[in-house]
Structure to design on (148 residues):
């Protein structure tokens, strides 16, 4: 007799599949699109150095700044989707990195305290906990916290 998978197993498989796809997209954004934009930026900077016309030089500089901004946005999006530190260094370093990015983006200070030794946990659990941290971020943006 063949056993059918439970709803929980199916849900778990779907969530895992979605997380793997998100991870793939994040890597492609960073390694593919981000690297292509960086190559274009480098080429523009080379062209700028050989152009003598001030108007053209200013235009190239503006285009370079736009590409630099796009690179930063791609990196931010990539980290939001799946931070590389989560896989390479673990949950705590990934959360610290995310909090640092969050603080610099929104100007809201977040205090993360950890005690004891960080024990390794399965990547699926790390991703779930990291997503909880991300989901809490918009709540902090809407809160008005007054010092005592």
């Amino acid at each position: 007799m063949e056993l059918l998978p439970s709803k929980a197993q199916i849900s778990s498989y779907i969530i895992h599949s979605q997380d793997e796809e998100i991870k793939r997209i994040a890597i492609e954004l960073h390694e593919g699109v981000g690297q292509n934009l960086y190559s274009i930026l480098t080429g523009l900077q080379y062209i700028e150095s050989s152009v003598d016309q001030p108007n053209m030089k200013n235009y190239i500089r503006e285009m370079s700044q736009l590409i630099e901004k796009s690179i930063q946005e791609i990196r931010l999006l990539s980290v939001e989707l799946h931070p590389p530190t989560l896989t390479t260094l673990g949950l705590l370093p990934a959360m610290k990195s995310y909090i640092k990015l969050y603080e610099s983006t929104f100007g809201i200070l977040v205090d993360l305290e950890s005690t004891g030794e960080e024990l390794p946990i399965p990547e699926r659990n790390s991703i779930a906990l990291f997503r909880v941290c991300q989901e809490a971020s918009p709540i902090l943006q809407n809160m008005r916290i007054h010092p005592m």
